[in-house]
Amino acid sequence: MNRTLQSELQEIRSLGLLRSTRLIKGSQRANVSCNGRDVLMLCSNNYLGLADHPALSAASIEAIERYGTSSGASRLVSGTMELHEELERAVALFKKSEAALIFNSGYAANTGIISALVGRGDVVFSDRLNHASIIDGIMLSGARLVRYPHGDYTQLGKLMEMHAKGRSLIVTDGVFSMDGDIAPLAEIAELKRRHAALLMVDDAHGSGVLGENGRGSAESFGVGDDVDILMGTFGKAFGSFGAYAAISAELRELLLNRARSFIFSTSLPPSVLAASLAAIELVQSNEGEKLRDKLFSNSSFFRKSLIEAGFIVPTGSTQIVPLIIGSAAVAMQFSEALFSEGYFAQGIRPPTVPAGTSRLRFTLMATHSQADLAAAVEGICRVGSTLGVL
Length: 390
Ligand SMILES: Cc1ncc(COP(=O)(O)O)c(C=O)c1O
Fold this sequence. Notes:
The protein is an alpha/beta fold. It folds into 2 domains: 126 residues, Aspartate Aminotransferase, domain 1 (Alpha-Beta Complex); 230 residues, Aspartate Aminotransferase, domain 2 (3-Layer(aba) Sandwich). Helix content is 44%, strand content 16%. The protein has 14 helices and 14 strands. The strands form 3 sheets. A 7-stranded mixed sheet has the order 4-10-9-8-7-5-6, with helices on both faces. Strands 1-2-3-12 form a 4-stranded mixed sheet. Strand 8, helix 8 and strand 9 form a beta-alpha-beta unit. It is globular, with a radius of gyration of 21 Å. The N and C termini lie far apart (43 Å). Bound molecules: pyridoxal-5'-phosphate. Pyridoxal-5'-phosphate (PLP) binds next to helix 4.
């Protein structure tokens, strides 16, 4: 490797910011073997446990037998298969939108959508804690980025008074990925109307989990009609992979013609599309309802137990429970020590979260047992006391 790159890598190492992967053996369950150790999984986005659900696996296998393993091309060449259109119809029905467009991942959706909708001379108002893929989409677009303080719609309103000239887009996570809180969508929708702005909500962590039948955060606030672009992913609660934008038919046509991540990439394969279709059905079924109930009782139990033990846990109600530590080094030590106790929770540090707010990000699943969670809280307390965090 070239010398300057070597020294840049060395700098990452010396700052204690080097990242590496951990190997999970078998499927994504609550109890897994990770790097050769049996641990309780506390950092997966497989919220409803659908990643190894028999209905999704069966649908994938059947799709492979019927349609093969690849779409062979991008959507606008010859890569649009029956399942792409079927999934888009299913998403539109589920989200009560006029149309939908499938993207290859949430990252591809955010970068592609934002850079297709705005450009030089336009303004994007973005929550300070929005996901990195949103920020990258804004950078790629060349539009002016105006960040507003996290969840602060009063400030957003003031910033819009000052800067909302020409075309403007407000973009926010529905459920914030590292904090687990929910965006104030009713107030944001009101600002969108007042300034005739476009509104985009990234519901990667809300879809399948919040709202009636798991329709997501916008539906839970009753502001679905104000959201011009409702983006969501299939890789989290839906146990599959890929993403979508629930939109008007006109916006679909525009994105199909302009979103470069959609245009210049081989489309999703049949197995993935079939798993997503099965997941949309399951999420809306009685089984989906039961899984959501279990997820919520697990999340409330876990959050309450950590708060009662004396940890700094922001108030919230979702399945994402951050335990704020501050120092990146201590957050990583905490994560390592917990791992030795048999609990896997990733330490999250800059640049994923702002400096000084490094944390453990716990994510709950419907497949956790309450006994396992209670034992995990005890383990977290032991490590917290040893490291002086408690
Ligand atoms: C809020 C949010 N948006 C987008 C993404 C990207 O989605 P994907 O993993 O499908 O690329 C993620 C996480 O992965 C996310 O947390």
